[in-house]
Specification:
Elements lengths: L14 E5 L5 H13 L15 E5 L10 H4 L1 E5 L6 E5 H7 L1 H12 L6 H6 L1 E3 L1
Parallel strand pairs: 1-2, 2-5
Antiparallel strand pairs: 3-4
Helix pairs in contact: 1-4, 3-4
Length: 125
């Protein structure tokens, strides 16, 4: 009898379609991250990438609670002195609504080599 984890060479990936209309971003992102990691499957192990595909529709109709539209900021830095860029959520929603959800989901995925592979399986319609 072998000890340790048994690896299945064949990974069956399903496609889940989620409608984002009227859903809160954080709750939606946890559902998507759960599906991308494959935690709903009986053969889940953290070191394998056996998650499913997720297709998100109506991502521009998501809901925010509280005063997040005015108060939440996204930061990016170029690496140069004075290179900090700040974007408010309301402008980010107007320009790139997909990126708001993609960033929320990416921060909920594990920070390892599997993260880029998992986030590739998130698609938008």
């Amino acid at each position: 009898m072998m000890k340790g984890t048994q690896f299945n060479t064949k990974i069956e990936r399903k496609t889940h379609q989620i409608d984002a209309t009227g859903q809160a971003v954080g709750r939606l992102a946890t559902q998507i991250a759960h599906l991308l990691m494959g935690k709903q499957k009986s053969n889940y192990t953290p070191q394998t990438d056996n998650g499913d595909f997720v297709v998100l529709i109506n991502s521009d109709k998501i809901k925010f609670t509280g005063k997040k539209l005015e108060q939440k900021n996204y930061y990016s830095h170029s690496g140069h002195p004075g290179g900090l860029r700040v974007t408010q959520l309301k402008f980010m929603l107007k320009d790139k609504p997909h990126d708001v959800i993609k960033l929320a989901v990416k921060k909920m995925l594990p920070k390892n080599r599997l993260q880029p592979l998992m986030i590739k399986r998130l698609m938008f319609k």
